[in-house]
Amino acid sequence: MWRETKYRYDGKYFSMPERNVLPKPYSQPHPPLWVACGSPSTFEKAARLGLGALCFSLGSPKDFAPLIKLYKDNIKHAEPVGAYVNDNVACVTQLVCLEDRQRAREVALTMGSGYHTSLVFRYLDTFPRPAGVPEWPALIPDPTPQQLEERIASGQRIVGDPDECAKAVQQYADVGCDQIIFGVLASTLPQDLALQSVELFGREVQPRFDKDPLHSTTRYRQAALAKSGGARAAIT
What we know:
The chain has helices at residues 40-48, 61-75, 101-109, 113-123, 145-154, 162-174, 191-204, 206-209, 216-228, and strands spanning 7-10, 15-19, 34-36, 52-56, 89-93, 95-97, 158-160, 179-182.
């Protein structure tokens, strides 16, 4: 639909008569393609189709290790549905990065993360509800101080001072995660603290890991552009 002026499809589950689907992407090649992943079969399918894998990290990085390995093993043999292979795994988690590690914990304990996680399971109502997750409208309680410490230690939550946050990020890097996305305002975290947290993380933690000024997806798109001959070369 993005690449062809005249597009039609006749399949098992749906059919579409010939149409010119608009709008088309302005930049060439098209923007990176991603798919939300939660089960081993979806990680495998994403890799087979050359799509980036986007996953919510409700568990620890260790829990994602076999899923990421499955993806990385299969992406080597991808037959991309797009113009290029987007070899990327991105995990979504929370961030509270402050100079005062105790203050970061106090914020993390009072920003309503239990309510947000409850909404995630309500949204994913076609998934089996894990043991211990109450049925809506009952809510998952916010973590106790002990539970939060356990989640920080396992990398499940990136909370603390810059050194602690870097240790958590390293756990994601060690299992092959390419990107981390922070749902910074998916809670009651005040905006000023969110900005302070993101700025401190960007200044003190990100440079320890992000050494390449060019994003991997930009490299994939540039290679695809060169291969295709380079018409309308605005990659943004």
